[in-house]
Amino acid sequence: MRDDDTSDPVTKALLGESNYERLRATRFGMFKQPIHRKLRWQSLLLFGLALVLPLMAVFPSEVRATLPGGGSMAGAAPKVVVLGLVGGVVVLLGGLTLTAVGLLRVRLEPSMTEWQADTLLNVEEVASLLGIGTGGIGILLTLGFTAIGFGGTQAVGAYVRTMGTSPFTATGVEWLSVSSVATFAFVGSVALFVFSQFVRLELYLRVEDAVL
Predict the structure, then answer these.
(1) What is d(CA 48, CA 50) in angstroms, rounded to the nearest whole number?
(2) If you placed Cys at 49, which of 33, 34, 44, 185 could pair as Cys (CB 3.0 to 4.6 Å)?
(3) What distance in Å separates the CA atoms of residue 191 and residue 201, rounded to the nearest whole number?
(4) Residue 94 predicted with pLDDT over 90
């Protein structure tokens, strides 16, 4: 089955020989998209996290001067980047798990049992919820907090008066910096995109044409 197949995918899944696709079509799931598509979403999330570096680099000068390290991106990371790092790690781990699920399916099809299919779908759903849901929220919040800096010191000051702390204060973790988090996110984004293409080829060229 190709991405541009115009036939009903649910009908093909129900009538096909794959226990995995039959269970996927009949069970509830928040993220029922193909694995390769979810990997692309996660790749996009990590790419969004990598944008924190260029975004902070174009902050108003008065805001850059307040960043740890005197505005240098090589300095200690502001607190907001810690949230992004946690979200990015969760997204990457979720993506690696989805990649493993996709490759296991290639290995087990077309003789995959219903129990094996159910187990893989459970793992896929958990990885999707964590990687896209939990990790994605962390990254989006990071970008949202970062955007406060574009409002200048007045916007940052208003946030501090409301929340009692600034998202741009230092964490005290010397090895952590905006540039290191952005580099991690960019490398992870590229890796997940490559994995998405590999899984797509493995599944759609070697498996689904044979079992659907």
Answers:
(1) 5
(2) 185
(3) 16
(4) yes
- DSSP annotation string for 104-154: HHHHHTTS--HHHHHHHHHHHHHHHIIIIIIHHHHHHHHHHHHHGGGGHHH
Residue 131 near residue 31 (C-beta atoms within 8 A): no
DSSP 70: T
Residue position matching structure tokens 């590999």 = 198
Task: Check if the beta carbon of residue 51 is closer than 8 Å to that of residue 179.
Answer: no
Token reading at 116: 């094996």
Tokens of 76: 């200690």
Q: Among candidates 24, 26, 202, 197, which has minimal Cα distance to 108?
A: 202
State pLDDT tens for residues 33-65: 889 999 999 999 999 999 999 999 888 888 888
